[in-house]
Amino acid sequence: MTVSGAASIAGIGATEFSKDSGRSELRLAAEACRAALDDAGLTASDVDGMVTFTMDANAEIAVARELGVPSLRFFSRIPYGGGAACAVVQQAVLAVATGTASVVLCYRAFNERSGNRFGRVQAAAAGQPTSGGVDNSWHYPMGLVTPAATVAMFARRYMHEFGATSEDFGRVAVVDRRAAATNPAAWFHGRPISLADHQASRWIAEPLRLLDCCQESDGAVALLVTSTERARDLRQRPAVVSAAAQGSGTDQYTMNSYYREDLVGLPEMGLVARQLWAQSGIGPEDVSVAVLYDHFTPFVLVQLEELGFCGRGEARHLVADGVLELDGALPLNPHGGQLGEAYIHGMNGIAEAVRQVRGTAVNQVGGVENVLVTAGTGVPTSGLVLTPP
Amino acid sequence: MTDIEQAAREVTARGESARRRGRDPVNLPMIHNWVEAIGDRNPVYTDASFPSVHGGIVAPPAMAQVWTMYGLHGTRPSDDPLGAMVGVLDDAGYTSVVATDCDQTYHRYLRPGETVEVASRLESVIGPKRTALGEGWFVTTRSTWYVGDEPVVEMSFRVLKFRPKPAAPAATPTIRPQVGRDTAFFWAGTALGELRIQRCGTCGRLRHPPGPMCPGCGGTEQEYVVASGLGEVYSFVVHHHPPVPGRTLPFVVALVELEEGVRMLAELVDLSPEAVRVGLPVVVGFHRVDDELAMPVWRVR
Description:
Low-confidence stretches of chain B: none
Distance between the termini of chain A: 20 Å
Number of domains of chain B: 2
CATH class of chain A: Alpha Beta
Strand order of the largest sheet of chain A: 3-2-4-7-1-8-11-10-9
GO molecular function (chain A): acyltransferase activity, transferring groups other than amino-acyl groups
Protein name (chain A): Lipid-transfer protein
Largest interface: A-B, 40 and 39 residues
Mean pLDDT of chain A: 97
Mean pLDDT of chain B: 93
Largest sheet of chain B: 5 strands, antiparallel
Number of strands of chain B: 13
InterPro entries (chain B): ChsH2_C, ChsH2_Znr, FAS1-like_DH_region, HotDog_dom_sf, NA-bd_OB-fold, Thioester_dehydratase-like
Largest sheet of chain A: 9 strands, mixed
Shape of chain A: globular
Strand order of the largest sheet of chain B: 1-3-4-5-2
Strand content of chain A: 15-25%
Number of domains of chain A: 1
Strand content of chain B: 25-35%
CATH topology of chain A: Peroxisomal Thiolase, Chain A, domain 1
CATH topology of the largest domain in chain B: Thiol Ester Dehydrase, Chain A
Helix content of chain B: 10-25%
Oligomer: heterodimer
CATH superfamily of chain A: Thiolase/Chalcone synthase
CATH architecture of the largest domain in chain B: Roll
Structural class of chain A: alpha/beta
Number of helices of chain A: 13
Pfam families (chain A): Thiolase_C_1 (PF22691), Thiolase_N (PF00108)
Number of helices of chain B: 4
Radius of gyration of chain A: 19 Å
Organism (chain A): Actinophytocola xanthii
């Protein structure tokens, strides 16, 4: 049995992206979900499933109450932070394809800048009475206490083994910010950066600079998933989910997979990639647009390698050659990514992929056939391939 | 009763010390110096022609102590009660001092030409008290200034004599590890100054971080070996931002490959961040946080 093509994203919704929403996270979730329903031309009474991240603070039942969803027959959550982004869609696809649910809302809502900031020291992380708390006990008490620092440990080794430099990381930020500059929904709309700006930005966790790190944002995104058959009759052109996959690798940790044989790959993303190509029947050469998770620039390079766009350690040449520009062979993050548009845990990237398939993006790429989307890196992760019907 | 309390009782029982005469009478030059330093421009203290209610120059009341100061080379008389208690507390290890309270009562103004004498007695010694500065004793004395037999000023003066706290070491973590059934052996080791690596009791596989079941053979009998503590930096981070409780920025966290073949993470201390590189040879050390916890740290070797 394959679920490839069985379900589509038929509606997308979002709040504005800001640094201080001034509203509760529940309200943000409800607003984004309602916008997704409106976008699809459906109502709350059509919804019978909901999926979100385990990190989301808004219970499915709470969101259902606000929307007036009469009943839910499918609800599920995905762990590991931003690694959940594409997997919540996969959950919805599995539910729809098996007839478990017919219309599933996927959502992520937070005040991640004005409320609990992920970039701050999470002093309680090692104290949780869970296996995750034990894992954190080998890292947090030693002073490795922020997401940036956990990625910096990886980046240093990557530089050592392949000769990559801070400028190689910086080119990813320049590409993202150039796209964000022409996206009115982006926080950094109208504010592109140069490589010199990147090099002049201060150290956060050396070798990562400020401009290697994504934003902290308030906002919400919701995606509505239903059968492709039903989606054809709805308001928008369906974004068909031709592949959806999760991946977790050998000796996997959350952000701290430092005990594997080497420290220069993301094998969990390699596992996702192989499944995406197998399900969709396409390969890297068939990708029209790549929406790659970009919380920190070094992992964009490693993803390009794990996804098969180039060999190990070669991604920096791809970036330097202009391949990832909007008019390049593999346009990267036309919305500006999480470095440029907003950090909504990868969900805003999926919404952009849907717009690229519809042909309605502000930085629209021509002749889109296959859009690749990835979720959080350094953690168990997920990915999607979206195509026109 | 402690030795300190016994000494305090004896000093208190002596009552007031002998009166000590000021070096000079109350005088205008010293008044000038004082009001200029303080910034007090009231003409009643310096201008003889000013139509003062006092009918002539008076000294600022708050100068009372000035008239009986020892001078640069003066020595405290042997019957001074504060000097006696300071000696007792110094000997007991309460070596630091800070003045905490000073209350003065003025019975009348002093005029130039008057000769002032002072006498002191011990009022109380209270402690030991735990303070932000460290454990200490509050010593309160009461001094009276006289002109002839007339008391003109009284002062209650309190100091804290304390044992200074040791400076907080730079690497003190405020984020504590969770110590559980699967990991207690490691933290018991660091507390003893041993770096322990889990070894499977069935197949002998070494593993860090440790866990309850060997991923190689499924064994659940876990043992450990004591590592040599020698290794090389495999990768590292220089943390600049945000601030981390208990640490001074920037600091280095290093992932070290131990010579036994496992990797382990700890702070790398006592070396400038610029000097750290992949491949740097290091040796483990142990930073004692408190009675229960010691953290491994790396030092260059």
